[in-house]
Amino acid sequence: MSESIINEQEEAIKVDYEKGNFSFPEDYTYDAGTGLSEETVAYISKVKNEDEWIKEFRLKALEIFNKKPMPTHWASKDLENIIFENIRYYLSKGQKPSRTWDEVPDDVKETFERLGIPEQERKFLAGVEAQFDSEAAYSRMKEDLEKEGVIFVGSSEGLEKYPEIFRPYFGKVIPSADNKFSALNSAVFSGGSFIYVPKGVKLKQPLQAYFRINAENFGQFERTLIIADEGAEITYMEGCTAPKFETATLHSAVVELVALKNAKIQYITVQNWSNNVFNLVTKRAHAEENAEVKWIDCNIGSRLTMKYPGVVLKGRKARGEVLSIALANDGQHQDTGAKMIHLADETTSNIISKSISIGKGRSTYRGQVHMPKHLKNCKNNTECDALLINTNSRTDTYPAITTRGEGNTVQHEASVSKVSAEQIFYMMQRGLSEGEAMSLAVNGFVNDLLKAFPMEYSVELKRLIDMEMEGSVG
Q1: pLDDT of the residue at 25
Q2: pLDDT at 2 over 70
Q3: Spatial separation of the C-alpha atoms in residues 221 and 282, rounded to whole Å
Q4: Read out DSSP for 122-134?
Q5: What is the pLDDT of residues 261-299, one digit of tens each?
Q6: Helix-then-strand count for the chain, H and E
Q7: Does position 170 have pLDDT exceeding 60, yes or no?
């Protein structure tokens, strides 16, 4: 292959590491102000012109949020830095999600053009939704999928237009009272995706949502519900960015997945939040008979991430899988993991977690596997591998595995390693700088998981790792 062709290919996949670090002047039609109260919730519900039952759902969730204490069993005291009264819970330009790119407001359009969203859509996506602060600015799906009955809209539009599908599952996978932050999301949720894939429909191309925080002191609370009917298949991808502000920003999403009999859902997340973001997300799936749910998760950036995707294996021979990569740099804590709840015979779960800690960064694996005694022939495999780059980096593993009954199998494997000085020296003797050698070692550590990501994302992840490794040596 000629050198010019190689250069062209490298340029085509080149990632701008700072592409998310920009913002536009604030110009909002609707602003709930700072602080959280019944008036805030009522304002959001009124702006969105919601039915009375949704408003009551929100107010009840607010009551739950106020009663629940902040989590104390998690490993970080950083949560004390979240001042809920300083957060802005709803900001919107008043736009409805546009079906054509030309109709999107100019500053919002420029934001997503700079992030490459229209280009990605043209290349390989079946549909895309782009959320700017509290509301979606753009939502579009290929016409052939609409003809097959696939629904891909924002959560508010789903509640309004498809209540007979949406409402039976809404808040059932993750109840408001599940934890303090699921209650917060239930009170002030806005944006997110609602997807329904009819029986037997198998999407060959992924759907994607992109969540962008533009405003300072802002909280983004999208809520996503995906339902794959019997025999349906879907891959959904989400990306997240925010500019680098000095003040704290909160991202607290709720994601509910429902895979009915023989259905398959694959949910891929690549986040690259700025270091001021508290990323506190609740994600869970229900898998019915012979259904399969796979979470593929990559966490880079944020000040603190607490995220534990789970699968409740409700039907016989259901399968659940979580593949996760977490990278914690200076001043960051990636507290991530997975939950697998076996509720039927012959169910299978697999958890593979890889974490990298750099400088004074801290990574934590927190997992739960549960198999009751009345179940038979269930299997779980859990692997937790951690890589420490510097002497001050830290990693912790907290697996909670409960298995009873006969014929159930659980295996757990964990490892902690440091980058070998001999390995780095060997690569430097062959012309690599110390930073390049370190990047190569880290990419090798996560390479088997990177293969699970679509090519466009795996290339970007490798380059993001290269960026994080710059200046990490010494």
Answers
A1: 42
A2: no
A3: 11
A4: HHH-SEEEEEETT
A5: 999 999 998 887 778 889 999 999 999 999 999 999 988
A6: 12, 24
A7: yes
Which of 20-34, 189-203, 389-403 shows the highest mean pLDDT? Answer: 189-203
The alpha carbon of residue 312 and the mean position of all alpha carbons in its chain are separated, in whole angstroms, by 18
- Contact between 175 and 182 under an 8 Å Cβ cutoff? The reply is yes
Beta-bridge mates of residue 136? 131
Cβ atoms of 88 and 134 within 8 Å: the answer is no
The more confidently predicted of residues 431 and 16 is 431
Q: Are 391 and 360 in contact (CB under 8 A)?
A: no
Q: From CA 220, how far away is CA 337, in angstroms rounded?
A: 22
Query: What are the tens digits of pLDDT across the range 204-232?
Result: 888 877 766 666 677 889 999 999 999 99
Nearest-angstrom CA–CA distance, 250 and 82: 8
Could you give the angle at which helices 180-188 and 38-47 cross, rounded to 10 degrees? 50
Which of 200-204, 211-215, 425-429, 437-441 reaches the highest mean pLDDT? 200-204
Task: Give dist(CA 82, CA 87) in Å, integer.
Answer: 9
What Rg value do the Cα atoms of the chain yield, rounded?
Answer: 22
d(CA 389, CA 359): 7
| 306/214 Cα distance (integer angstroms) | 22
When pLDDT is cut at 50, 70 and 90, the band that residue 336 belongs to is very high
Burial label for 400, CB within 10 Å (0-12, 13-18, 19+), is exposed
User: CA 107 to CA 283: how far, in whole Å?
Assistant: 31
Q: Which residues contact 334 (CB under 8 A, 6 or more apart)?
A: 299, 302, 305, 326, 327, 328, 355, 361, 362, 363, 364
Q: Tokens 């039952």 belong to which residue? A: 53
Residue ranges covered by each domain of the chain: 17-307, 421-474
> Which of these, 312, 332, 333, 382, lies nearest to 353 by C-alpha position?
382
